[in-house]
Design a protein that fits this description.
Length: about 575
């Protein structure tokens, strides 16, 4: 039986099914004792978790583990450049995407501790280009994601921006300032929005008089020991050792490049190594701000006006994993993926950086945590899906309307049941009881209720303390003449873009000069949802003569955007 391969110091592969190598291993074990064996065992197990990416023709990832203030593990797998055949190493820099938010939040909190601003200040005091709304938006709202501001990168996608288009902080601020309405009134709800952190970085620049990238490097990154880290505020700048990013485009094309030309900072664009990211976790665990442990300050959960807590602090999600309190954040930026998981009471952290979007960075961080903190964790995580017969799985297949605008799409692929929600990657469903399923993500559960015909009539999706309910959907059937009434060219002043709508076989097709076209399924008259499930809703409005005159477009992070015919 061939055992997993382990890379030797000379980069040749040591095969454990070779008798000579087994003898050498036994001699080394006797000489070095069980501590060495434990470390080797963890190293081998981590290697098995990432074996899919340990290839000479594939992008991959880097990973670092911090324990009691020390880096105890660093490794890299795959290539930094497929074009040049350059391997990823522990010194390779990658884009940490939204993991950067905790650095931005720390910058604002540090300035507040120095008396240079208050997190309860009106944002427009520092950035007057921001429109004044019915209620004041404060810096605290920005950092807690309770501002109600529409997400800037969702707006960019809706406006037809392509991945290769240059994205600067100035362009982002322009797009934010054009918005005439909010998703909700400030402080009334939690709504993840990159807009808040783009604005927060702009406030730091206004208060300090320095570029955000320069100030954070001098006052935060270098003091944290992050010598190889910085915010990238110029997309044309050459960064030494910066890995390219990729995505899988199918067997015909293989891997293709997948990078953003972005110089926007604050919400993301922190260029770093996994080791530096682990050092940042150590900085949060070992330092104080205003007399409080820094990780506790960032982990202070947002509170809504009705007293509910949001589960999100200052740039970090506040959660539990198998009985232990955690602070964590992940992110994706085109083909880059990242996750930082911190367990404060164990003095432990895992940092994962990938240059291919297929890597499940959060799941990998949790799996590594399982290895290191096995004796401190409660309840065993699900590792393999239980059996579900083809007939049983078929009873769940279909569309479910979640709330006003979300569409849950359940399908069977490769004999397994998957769900699609809001245009995200398909999630494998693990049977966990009678009409109950979980996913690989901790705390996600789907519970179905059957109807009289044996198929499922409704579903409840539980994500931590959040509950989403939905009913099985039978799409409306509109006649061709009814669909043709919606045809026309529509313009959004807020997005500065046109959408053309034409009747299609079963619904409507939306065509754009820039950005991908998409299809709409009629739910009832004047209301359509994107299909396949993408989380986008159009509600048409009419004049007093019953003629269609426009619509409002809503997605999860940007609601109520007006278009006129």
């Amino acid at each position: 039986i061939p055992f997993p391969a382990v890379a030797g110091e000379d980069n040749r592969v040591m095969r454990w099914n070779n008798p000579a190598n087994l003898l050498l291993f036994a001699m080394s074990l006797a000489a070095c004792g069980f501590n060495w064996c434990d470390e080797r065992d963890v190293d081998t197990q981590i290697g098995s978790l990432v074996a899919r990416w340990d290839r000479p023709d594939s992008p991959g990832l880097t990973l670092a583990v911090l324990q009691d203030g020390q880096l105890v593990y660093e490794n890299a797998w795959g290539l930094a450049s497929l074009e040049l055949g350059v391997p990823l190493t522990t010194e390779t820099r990658l884009n940490a995407a939204s993991v950067a938010k905790q650095v931005t939040a720390t910058a604002v909190l540090m300035l507040a501790a120095e008396g240079k601003l208050s997190i309860d200040d009106d944002v427009s005091r520092y950035r007057p280009e921001l429109r004044r709304y019915q209620d004041t938006i404060t810096l605290r709202h920005l950092l807690w994601h309770t501002s109600g501001l529409r997400d800037v990168w969702t707006l960019a996608d809706l406006a037809g921006w392509l991945p290769g288009d240059v994205r600067t902080s100035e362009q982002a601020l322009h797009l934010i300032s054009r918005q005439k309405a909010l998703n909700f009134l400030p402080g009334r709800a939690f709504g993840y929005s990159n807009s808040g952190y783009v604005l927060a970085a702009a406030v730091v620049e206004q208060v300090t008089g320095e570029p955000f990238a320069d100030w954070t490097r001098e006052h935060l990154l270098l003091p944290a020991g992050m010598q190889d880290s910085r915010f990238l505020d110029d997309h044309l700048e050459i960064v030494d050792g910066y890995a390219s990013a990729y995505r899988w485009a199918g067997h015909e094309k293989g891997f293709v490049t997948d990078s953003l030309a972005s110089g926007s900072v604050g919400s993301g664009n922190l260029i770093t190594t996994s080791g530096d990211l682990a050092r940042w976790a150590g900085y949060l665990l070992s330092n104080q701000l205003a007399g409080q442990p820094l990780h506790s300050v960032l982990g202070a959960q947002g509170t809504l006006r009705d007293g509910r807590q949001t589960g999100y602090g200052f740039g970090l999600f506040v959660d539990t994993y198998r009985g232990l309190r955690t602070l964590h954040h992940g992110g994706n930026s085109a083909g880059y993926g990242a996750h930082l998981l911190i367990v404060p009471e164990a003095g432990f952290a895992v940092a994962v950086l990938a240059n291919v979007i297929s890597v499940n960075s959060r799941r990998l961080a949790e799996q590594v945590t399982n290895l290191y903190l096995a004796d401190q964790l409660s309840t065993q995580p699900i590792t393999e899906p239980a059996h579900l017969s083809a007939d049983d799985a078929q009873s769940y297949v279909g569309l479910y309307a979640i709330g006003a605008q979300r569409l849950l799409d359940l399908r069977i692929a490769d004999g397994q049941l998957y769900f699609y929600l809001d245009g995200t990657m398909p999630k494998l469903m693990f049977p966990a009881g009678q009409h109950r399923f979980t996913t690989q993500e901790e705390g996600v559960e789907l519970t179905f209720k059957p109807g009289v015909d044996g198929s499922m009539a409704s579903v409840v999706i539980s994500v931590a303390s959040l509950r989403l309910t939905g009913k099985r959907l039978e799409p409306a059937r509109l006649k061709t003449k009814q669909l043709q009434a919606y045809e026309g060219r529509y313009f959004s002043e807020e997005l500065e873009t046109f959408y053309s709508i034409v009747a299609a076989d079963e619904g409507l097709a939306v065509q754009r000069l820039r950005g991908a076209d998409f299809s709409l399924l009629p739910i009832d008259e004047d209301r359509f949802l994107e299909h396949p499930a993408g989380g986008l809703e159009l509600r048409f409005n009419r004049n007093r003569f019953d003629k269609v005159r426009g619509f409002t477009l809503s997605v999860d992070r940007a609601r109520g955007i007006s278009f006129r015919k």
